[in-house]
From TrEMBL, chain A:
NCBIfam families: PRK06638.1-5
InterPro entries with a match to the protein in the record: NADH_UbQ/plastoQ_OxRdtase_su6, Nuo/plastoQ_OxRdtase_6_NuoJ
Taxonomic lineage from the root: Bacteria, Bacillati, Actinomycetota, Actinomycetes, Kitasatosporales
Record localization: Cell membrane
GO MF assignments: NADH dehydrogenase (ubiquinone) activity; quinone binding
Chain spans, region Disordered: 179-207
EC number: 7.1.1.-
Membrane protein topology class: Multi-pass membrane protein
Name of the protein in question: NADH-quinone oxidoreductase subunit J
Database matches in PANTHER family: NADH-QUINONE OXIDOREDUCTASE SUBUNIT J, NADH-UBIQUINONE OXIDOREDUCTASE CHAIN 6
Ranges annotated as biased composition (Basic and acidic residues): 179-198
From TrEMBL, chain B:
Main localisation: membrane
Membrane spanning stretches: 6-23, 28-48, 60-83
Protein name stated in the entry: NADH-quinone oxidoreductase subunit K
Native source species: Streptomyces griseoruber
GO BP annotation list: ATP synthesis coupled electron transport
Localization, UniProt: Cell membrane; Membrane
InterPro entries associated with the record: NADH_UbQ_OxRdtase_chain4L/K, NUOK/Mnh_C1-like
One GO location term (cellular component): NADH dehydrogenase complex
Protein keywords: Cell membrane, Membrane, NAD, Oxidoreductase, Quinone, Translocase, Transmembrane, Transmembrane helix, Transport, Ubiquinone
Membrane topology: Multi-pass membrane protein
GO molecular function, one term: NADH dehydrogenase (quinone) (non-electrogenic) activity
Record-stated family: Belongs to the complex I subunit 4L family.
TrEMBL record, chain C:
Tagged with keyword Nucleotide-binding: no
The protein's name: NADH-quinone oxidoreductase subunit L
UniProt xrefs under Gene3D superfamilies: 1.20.5.2700
Transmembrane region(s): 32-54, 89-106, 118-135, 181-200, 220-240, 252-272, 284-305, 378-400, 420-438, 489-508, 528-550, 633-651
Domain NADH:quinone oxidoreductase/Mrp antiporter transmembrane intervals: 135-426
Gene: nuoL
UniProt GO cellular component terms: endomembrane system; membrane
One Pfam family hit: Proton_antipo_N
Top-level taxon of the source organism: Bacteria
Comp. bias (Low complexity): 459-468
Keywords for this protein: Membrane, Transmembrane, Transmembrane helix
Topology term for the membrane: Multi-pass membrane protein
């Protein structure tokens, strides 16, 4: 009776672990889907995968649990992050739907599918749980190895071929044949002069005492920020600090004080109005 | 606790992944959702392995991982080359059978 | 000997090929090549004729199987030839008269630039006509039938720069198509009824009975009527007669050879050849006799009113072929006499046409007889040969026409009963009218005052139609002169035929015995004695000649045609045949096609366009599903997977 019961159920510790980590896994999965930025999605997915690795271990799949962490979270997710870096941030990241009815259809079919699947599992009479005690008797890795190199040896070989093919395919897909020789530095310099494009080096960013300030725009003599001073990537990501307003306000206060002291009528410099409007 | 709960969890994760494939436009996120689906399957296989008391399910899960790795390599390569030609990783932008 | 049969056809066919594709190098000698090859064919015919004569009467059918033409299961058409007495008669007529007319054309077409092509067409015609009469099945006969139609079209329209000639050629071709439909339908009926269309099994050979008589009378009547339609088209019988008069737009040798002596008699050949079918269909035979009788009167009346010498002769041709068709419709009583009249007619009508051509040659191509007159002094040879032809056609005792036409009139009476009386009466009346109009032609052309003097024969705005006449000077008064020897010799030879052929055939019933094994013969029971019929014919002849002499010999002939009676005016318009065709066929056809076009535009196009529009509209809506977004497709896949899961669960639950 108790042995049968043991086959049906698991220990309380595992139950606790399942409910806590299962919740984490579902949340991670939902975050993967609904996070706005791809990096966040990738991190959430990594979390879910680690939880899954723990579940593998709990289910007696020790080898797979380790492989999951090493291969998935270690290699594949890093690959994802590399590609996110390569591709960069685009406007397509918004979650706003563009295809009419797509979201509702997707949710509907997802819901239907999920309900059906769970109902199917609930309906199935899964009462026999043998457990892996016997199968893992000589060690999980040895057991897997024995199977892979005997029963599944052809599938294993073919998988190897598949990996090689995939590697070659990825190289072919991303490879670009250079059709002209790369321009030398001299040629680049000459082209710049010929095209009349900004010959000297770009101006430096605004240096601020608190950090190296590559994200701070340098100010022109009239106090307006120069767009040439920071990287375009930072500007597109919206990671620029605009300090011009503070500087201008300081300037304004200084002038006001000077006027009070000199008792002179305030002469509104025309460019100030413009910069104020621009800063709004 | 009945280990069948692992199967429920797998079904739930699979459904979430599939829905994500349908509603996300960023090709990289779509890929991640596919990985999520594959992982859900793996969880189911591992649970089945435990249920039946043999290691075949784990072998299948192992192969799934290998195939998923190959798929990710090729898929990401496709995304990169798409991005090069379109400057966009949105799957909706590739809606015509031409560049 | 059998191997020579194919050569009969091959010689003129070779001539046609050489002349038509040979190019300008042959311009100088083309006419002689054509004449030589035609003569070769004639000589071959004579050799074969000698061979046939050397055999016994039952053994005179030669066959030659050249190759299997359309070998399909059950549908076997061979290129094979059958030379029996009937074919032999035609071969000699075609090649003999054909060779003479080739010779005549050498003179007649001397100044035509496109002479080589003309002779090519003539040779093509000979080859097709020989194929027609030598074929041993109806399908091959059909090839020849179409071949002569093509040659006729090409030759009528030979002076294609004249719109009238081009139109006439088109008309002949179109009217003949109607008849050709009849022949093709007849062949199809034969195949479905008998399973074959070869002469051997169908019509019987070497004394054996053919299977043609086995079918029901209704089917035989249908086949026979279709064959009659074909014969009507080719032989210009009512109701398909309208093309023959216009066909006179062709060069005169063509009129003589094709539209008088040979091609137009192909219908008679077809009826006589299909005797076994017609014998089994008495109703069809009655229709044949009616067609023949109507046509013989029709043509004769038209011939009376025409002032154009060639058109008068064309009416005469129509009428004489009417005699032949009448005889052929009489059945075994008349078959032999139909062919006999055909041969004698071939001689004298060809002679008459050549004479007419000679007159035109001497008169700056003037064709209006009212502008002739008194030409006998200027063209003695033409006068004599034409006169002999004239005597022959009206049936002057002792000449060819007398024997052949008299036999047909006798046979018509011998039909017996009321039919016999009516047909015989028509034939007698036709004889009287023939005498009338031929005397009219003769008197207006060769006798009386010289009406061509003191007036140009052509008005300036009507330039010479026949390029041969260009050197005569167009506005000058004509200077009638005798034609060169190359033209007169054929006329003289044909005149000999006109005079002696009938007597030669009739004395001792030579022709009857020659043809009888093929066509069969039976003596009808005539209510009148032979002498009585001959006497009646003579009386009609005298009456016809007398009236014509009273009208045209005693009184001067006005140069401008008088208005004339209603009948005269109708006859001048070919008894309103073209008006009838226009009102009934052309208008009717226009209305039919218009209503068909309407139906096509509304109903057919409506259905087609409606289908297209509904498919287009539906696909326009369906297309929106194919928006190219991978995610939309993924939704469909996912939904489909959900449905599959649901279906699986349902099936397990059940």
């Amino acid at each position: 009776m108790s042995a049968q019961l043991a086959a049906y159920s698991t220990s309380n510790g595992e139950a606790f672990q399942f409910w806590v980590l299962g919740t984490v896994a579902v949340i991670g999965a939902l975050c993967t889907v609904f996070m706005k930025k791809a990096v966040h999605s990738a991190l959430c997915l990594a979390g879910t995968m680690i939880v899954l690795a723990i579940f593998y271990l709990a289910n007696g799949a020790y080898f797979l649990g380790i492989v999951q962490i090493v291969v998935y979270t270690g290699a594949i997710m890093m690959l994802f992050l590399f590609v996110v870096m390569l591709v960069g941030v685009t406007a397509a990241d918004s979650l706003k739907e563009t295809i009419k009815g797509q979201r509702w259809l997707a949710l509907l079919s997802g819901l239907g599918f999920g309900v059906l699947l769970i109902a199917g599992i609930g309906h199935a009479s899964l009462t026999e749980f043998t457990g892996l005690t016997q199968a893992n008797a000589k060690g999980n890795v040895e057991g897997l190895a024995a199977l892979i190199f005997t029963k599944y040896v052809f599938a294993f070989e073919i998988t190897g071929a598949l990996l090689i093919t995939a590697a070659v395919g990825a190289m072919v897909l991303t490879h670009r044949e250079r059709t002209e020789h790369a321009p030398t530095q001299r040629e680049l310099a000459e082209r710049r002069v010929r095209e009349g494009k900004h010959v000297p080096p770009l101006p430096a960013p605004g240096v601020y005492a608190r950090h190296n300030a590559v994200d701070v725009q340098g100010l022109l003599p009239d106090g307006t920020p120069s767009e040439l001073t920071v990287s375009r990537t930072l500007r597109e990501r919206g990671q620029i600090r605009d300090v011009s307003a503070a500087a201008l306000n300081d300037l304004k206060a200084l002038e006001q004080r000077a006027e009070e002291r000199l008792e002179r009528a305030a002469i509104e410099p025309p460019h100030l109005k413009r910069t104020e409007e621009a800063s709004k | 606790m009945n280990p069948v709960n692992y199967l429920y969890l797998a079904a739930l994760l699979f459904t979430i992944g599939a829905t994500g494939v349908l509603i996300r436009r960023n090709a990289i996120v779509v890929f991640m959702c596919i990985e999520l689906m594959l992982n859900a399957c793996n969880l189911a296989f591992v649970t089945f392995s435990r249920m039946h008391g043999n290691l075949d399910g784990q072998i299948i899960a192992f192969f799934t991982m290998v195939v998923a790795a190959a798929e990710v390599v090729v898929g990401l390569a496709i995304i990169v080359s798409l991005f090069r030609s379109r400057h966009s990783a949105s799957v909706d932008d590739a809606s015509l059978m031409k560049l | 000997m059998e191997n020579l049969i194919a050569l009969l056809i091959a010689a003129p066919l070779l001539g046609a090929a050489v002349l038509l594709v040979g190019g300008r190098r042959l311009d100088a000698v083309g006419q002689w090549v054509g004449t030589l090859l035609s003569t070769v064919s004639f000589v071959l015919g004579l050799v074969l004729f000698g061979d046939l004569l050397g055999r016994s009467a039952e053994d005179r059918t030669l066959t030659q199987h050249l190759f299997s033409w359309i070998p399909v299961e059950g549908f076997q058409a061979d290129v094979g030839f059958r030379l029996d007495q009937l074919s032999m008669t035609f071969v000699l007529l075609i090649t003999g008269v054909g060779s003479l007319i080739h010779l005549y054309s050498v003179g007649y077409m001397e100044h035509d630039e496109r002479r080589r092509r003309f002779f090519g067409y003539l040779n093509l015609f000979l080859a097709a006509m020989l194929l027609l009469v030598l074929a041993d099945n109806y399908l091959l006969l059909y090839v020849g039938w179409e071949g002569v139609g093509l040659a006729s079209y090409l030759l009528i329209g030979f002076w294609q720069h004249k719109p009238s000639a081009a139109t006439a050629a088109k008309k002949a071709f179109l009217v003949n198509r109607v008849g050709d439909m009849g022949l093709s339908i007849a062949i199809m009926l034969m195949f479905t009824t008998f399973g074959t269309f070869a002469f051997g099994p169908l019509l019987g050979a070497e004394g054996q009975q053919g299977i043609a008589g086995d079918a029901s009378e209704g089917k035989l009547t249908a086949i026979a009527l279709m064959l009659l339609l074909a014969a009507c088209g080719k032989s210009a019988q009512v109701p398909l007669q309208s093309w023959l008069g216009d066909a006179m737009e062709g060069p005169t040798p063509v009129s003589a050879l094709i539209h008088a002596a040979t091609m137009v008699t192909a219908g008679v050949y077809l009826i006589v050849r299909s005797a076994a079918i017609f014998n089994g269909a008495p109703d069809a035979q009655l229709v044949v006799t009616v067609v023949g009788a109507v046509t013989l009167l029709f043509g004769a009346i038209v011939g009376c009113a025409k002032d154009d010498i060639k058109k008068a002769l064309a009416g005469s041709t129509m009428s004489q072929i009417g005699y032949m068709v009448l005889a052929a419709g009489l059945g075994p009583i008349g078959y032999v006499f139909a062919i006999m009249h055909l041969v004698t007619h071939g001689f004298f009508k060809a002679g008459l046409f050549l004479g007419a051509g000679s007159v035109m040659h001497g008169m700056n191509d003037e064709v209006d007889m009212r502008k002739y007159g008194g030409l006998r002094k200027y063209m003695p040879v033409t006068f004599v040969t034409f006169g002999l032809g004239y005597l022959a056609i009206i049936g002057f005792p002792g000449l060819s026409g007398f024997f052949s036409k008299d036999k047909i009139i006798e046979a018509a009476f011998a039909k017996g009963g009321a039919e016999g009386w009516i047909l015989g009466g028509c034939a007698l009346l036709g004889a009287a009218i023939t005498a009338y109009y031929m005397t009219r032609v003769m008197l207006m052309t060769f006798f009386g005052e010289e009406r061509w003097k003191n007036q140009p024969t052509r008005s300036p705005e009507a330039p010479s139609a026949e390029p041969a006449a260009a050197h005569h000077g167009e506005h000058a008064e004509p200077h009638p002169h005798e034609s060169p020897k190359v033209m007169t010799i054929p006329m003289i030879v044909l005149a000999f035929g006109s005079v002696f052929a009938g007597g030669f055939f009739s004395i001792g019933d030579r022709f009857l015995h020659w043809l009888e094994p093929v066509t069969g013969h039976s003596e009808g029971d005539s209510p009148l004695s032979v002498a009585a019929v001959t006497g009646a014919t003579m009386v009609c002849l005298v009456i016809g000649v007398g009236i014509a002499y009273a009208q045209y010999g005693r009184r001067p002939v006005p140069v401008v045609a008088p208005r004339g009676s209603l009948l005269t005016r109708a006859a001048r318009r070919d008894l309103l045949q073209d008006d009838f065709n226009h009102v009934v066929l052309v208008r009717g056809g226009e209305h039919l096609t218009r209503s068909l076009v309407y139906v096509d535009h509304t109903l057919v196009d409506g259905v087609v366009n409606g289908t297209a529009a509904s498919v287009g509209g539906l696909s326009g809506r369906l297309r929106r599903l194919q928006n190219g977004f991978a995610r939309s497709y993924a939704v469909s896949m996912f939904g489909g997977a959900a449905v599959l899961v649901a279906a699986t669960l349902l099936m397990r639950a059940v």
